[in-house]
Specification:
6 helices, about 180 residues, 5-stranded parallel beta sheet, alpha/beta, single chain, Rossmann fold, globular
């Protein structure tokens, strides 16, 4: 694997960008309350392992439930804080949550947008995460459970991997190894 030259401003950090519902937690549909949080197998362990290895760990999640008026941004923030508390129990943390609360059929006018740059399959959240954390696109993995996640990864120029279930920690270790990154 070729290395990006070490010069000021060159992205060099490895990272994993996770979709949330269906990857880190079971997707029960518009998950936003603490009692709805059910981790996928190995999810918390995967995050903690990546943290110990020094990789950036971020979440990029479409949240059309906000646009549809099912819950608000405060509810989303509270849910993510709850996830952080439970991750901390195993030594893990998400460095940042990026959420796209937009949808073309939104009942909340502020979030009505036909093709918002952040809503996957658009790469806005991924590109922002890469800039915010100095991520090298050749050393960045996007883990999603839908074609739109993989398309966002492709558009952002990062490796995309389709998670279809099973032990998320083992899945991430294998995917990163295929990119030449050992964790």
């Amino acid at each position: 694997m070729s290395e990006i030259p070490n010069h000021p401003g060159a992205p060099s950090r490895a990272g994993v960008i996770f979709d949330r519902d269906g990857v880190l937690n079971v997707d029960h549909g518009y998950v936003h309350r603490q009692d709805q949080l059910e981790w996928t197998p190995g999810a918390r362990e995967a995050v903690a392992r990546l943290n110990r290895a020094g990789l950036a760990v971020v979440v990029a999640t479409n949240q059309s439930g906000v646009a549809r008026g099912y819950y608000g941004l405060d509810d989303l923030d509270e849910f993510h804080e709850h996830m952080q508390l439970l991750l901390a129990e195993v030594g893990g943390r998400v460095d940042r949550f990026y959420a796209a609360p937009h949808h073309e059929d939104a009942s909340v006018a502020a979030f009505r947008h036909a093709d918002h740059p952040d809503r996957k399959p658009n790469p806005g959240m991924l590109l922002r995460a890469m800039e915010d954390f100095g991520l090298d696109p050749t050393r960045t993995l996007m883990v999603g459970d839908r074609a739109s996640d993989l398309e966002a990864a492709r558009r952002a120029g990062v490796h995309g991997a389709l998670y279809t279930g099973g032990d998320l920690e083992a899945f991430v270790v294998v995917e990163l190894a295929s990119m030449g990154i050992e964790v």
